[in-house]
Amino acid sequence: MKSLNHFILTIFLVVLSHETIKSQTYVPFPNSGIIWNIITTNDTFDPHSPYKNRYGLIGDTLINDTLYSKLYVLENDTNLNIINGSYVGAIRENNKHVYYKDISFPTKDILLYDFSLQQGDTMYYDYYGFLGNIEPYINSHFNVVANIDSILINNKYRKRFNFENSDIWIEGIGSIFGQGLIHPIAQYPLNGDVVTVACIKHNDTILHLGNPLCDKCFCSLNIRGIENNKVRLYVFPNPVTSVFNIRFDYIEREVYNLSIIDCVGKKVFSKINIKKGNISINKENLNSGLYFIILKNDKGRVYSEKIIIE
Fold first, then answer.
1. Which of 91, 93, 103, 233 is in the most buried spot, having the most CB atoms within 10 Å?
2. Sheet architecture: strand order including 205-209
3. Taking a C-beta distance cutoff of 8 angstroms, is the pair 250, 293 a contact?
4. Is the pTM of this model over 0.70?
5. What is the pLDDT of residues 232-252, one digit of tens each?
6. Does CATH number 3.40.50.720 belong to domain 233-309?
7. Among 53, 111, 117, which residue's Cα sits nearest to residue 86?
8. Domain segments of the chain: what residues?
9. Distance of CA 4 to CAs 10, 18, 188, 216, Å?
10. Residue 172: enclosing H or E segment and its boundaries?
């Protein structure tokens, strides 16, 4: 009888979750005031010099009588400042479809996102290699929606699309992996670069925070955490299904603090005064999704790793 009740409760919760996702109000894509902060690191070739790439939507323009938001690459700027930016393309949304028009290929509207997709649907692309200074080329590829759930960001539920290749889209935000906005059509680095969406900020609101260098949206790249002898941080198993282990090269006489942060920057777990190099954590209080492990020592160094909770 207990098993039957448990089964009925499980079915009820699944149906309730499905109905919640269906009934929530669609969150449109921003048409201005949004900035992406992308951090690229390479521990093999240049561990001392992470590279930042920031871009944002500033103003609008008419192209063939259709209104677009203008996309700029921002030079060393944490604000949406045209003076320190270069125009690289344009974005528009129509009926839950987000299109990108790159200046190097101005006759083509590239479908970046389709927020009307359902579980099991396939998203097809015809091109790779965009963002103004990269010549696009034809290379068809596709991605399949593994499942759809919802995430609460600033008191508003948004649909979250989880893909089979581990990419994650959030309604009204786009991809939170790699190059962020243009990640679905961006070239994958083949030189060992690790590209991370450090932050997505709309006006004064942080929509996503996953900075590998600090716990802020923007931070100085000249920090002590990026150096040759940095602690190696391991998380396994990853993806996480129950208990997971965090292991790092513990340095004697140093004290460590550990935090787990969700994809909108909320701290969901913390442990202080760690004096050993192995920690086990049960995922029972963590919802499914992307998280960041942030490890800091008493010397001011910061180390990070991504995990997926299933």
1. 91
2. 110-114, 97-102, 85-94, 66-74, 51-63, 34-41, 194-202, 205-209
3. no
4. no
5. 677 888 888 888 888 877 777
6. no
7. 53
8. 27-209, 233-309
9. 10, 21, 48, 47
10. none
